[in-house]
Amino acid sequence: MANTLRFLIVDDSEDDTLLIIRELKKGGISPDYLRVDNAVKLAKALKDPWDLVISDHNMPGFSSEEALQIIKDSDIDLPVIIVSGTIGDDVAVNAMKSGAQDYVMKDNLARLIPAIQRELKEVNVRSAREKAEQTLRHLTFHDSLTDLVNRNEFVRRLRRALNDSKVDGTEHMLLYLDLDQFKVVNDTCGHIAGDELLKQVSLKLDQHIRDSDTLARLGGDEFGILLENCSEQHALDLAERLKAEIREYKFYWQGNPFAVGLSIGIVAVSADYDNAAEILSNADIACFAAKDKGRNTIQVYQRQDSELQQRYTEMQWTTRLHRAIEENAFFLCHQDMSALQGESGYCTEFLMRLRENGEVIYPGAFIPAAERYNLMPVIDLKIVEMVFSYLHISGRGQQNEGTYFINLSGNSLSDKDFFPTIKGMLERYAVKPDRICFEITETAAIAHLTDSVSFVHEIRNAGCKFALDDFGCGMSSFSYLKTIPVDYLKIDGSFVQNLLNDPIDLGIVEACNKIGHAAGLKTIAEFVENDEVKEKLRDIGVDYAQGYGIAKPKPLENL
Fold first, then answer.
1. Which of 26, 102, 325, 485 makes a 20 to 30 Å CA pair with 541?
2. Number of C-alpha atoms within 13 angstroms, CB side, residue 226?
3. What is the pTM of this model?
């Protein structure tokens, strides 16, 4: 207990007050006190801070009950001890019910110091508990790092704004902000630097919004701003100011400067929406579209925008693909090839399928989303492992004949861990590398040319083969053969389908075949749908044919 305490003494007797003060000093307390003897003086004195009130019970025209009521009405947690010369048990009980913490008889002041010590301790306990409860209440609605409103509270306010729009047509806007280059800082300098960046950006954003607006951290490096009673033009103007503010800002960590930016999606909060989740989802879509345009840009969501609708579909696919990966929902089919020039050895291509709620989904439905959200390396590795596992269990991976084609995404070739992982799988499943032929489309290879060349060199050095799929569809197809060292050319099926009726398609197929052979490669024609096309390809000199006219894709268990 502190040596100096402030006492408010409610007593009409100065002598009695001095007795109390003497007792306090005997107990080691240095009292700073004020004596009052009526309601007006007490109410005025309560405007100042006090540690404890000591009140007489009976005073001319004033009583402890009235004093307790005034203290109670002031809404201050201030302990009160009644000190009186004449007080019966029933009066003491009533005083305690009215709010007094204890009563002490004037002829037994030895009880005063222990009573004071106990009550001050109780005040400290109550104060600490209330502070903890306030902190807990604050954390329920605020982000612990930035102290901004959190996602749950933001959604609650968004629901309220949406309801207002439905009731009276009030116009509101929502900004969804994503911090560009945050991952660079976080990965380069660590989470402490990333947290500091988020706190600094939060302060800068907060400087630009109105008191009626809500700025929230929605998670990670994403922020939301709810602009109530706001036009679209005001939202655009604010977005431009925020973008300029963050673009000019430099984040320094350990002497190193980092430039960051904002990608901003804007959506109107209108009665057209059924719920807040739909509004947030559309804002997220618009923000991602802004990011996709090159970052540090602004995108307003429009329902009729086909590009944004496609993005929405892709974002839905990411959740489904993550679940499919976790639940092992992918399965393998295979499509056999036919040797046209007397080659020996079995050739087949493994094809990926997805089973969802009993329905088989083909790759064309989800690969664009998987590539956009960088899920293809994970999916490709899963498929490669499924193939290797099958070849190991069946024994086909240890045989001296057979070539097994596996498709890869161009995105996977850019993953630095992709080749080492595949190499490790080859060893783990004891698959002969020359039984495996990886393939990638020509357009993907060109789009990731440096990574493609590096990967092809690595995979061929490991003993595997490589095929260039959909060959001939690019404007500079032939020139890339000098750059990308492959073993097979798979001639684009769009030319193969019509080669009997279109002399240009026939000429392209013939050219692809001749160039491939001149480069020492085997050629494979895709989309071979009948015997007539098959025989024409045989005459041209194409080495293999693949398509529904040869064999349709079948589940792996039929291999």
1. 485
2. 25
3. 0.56
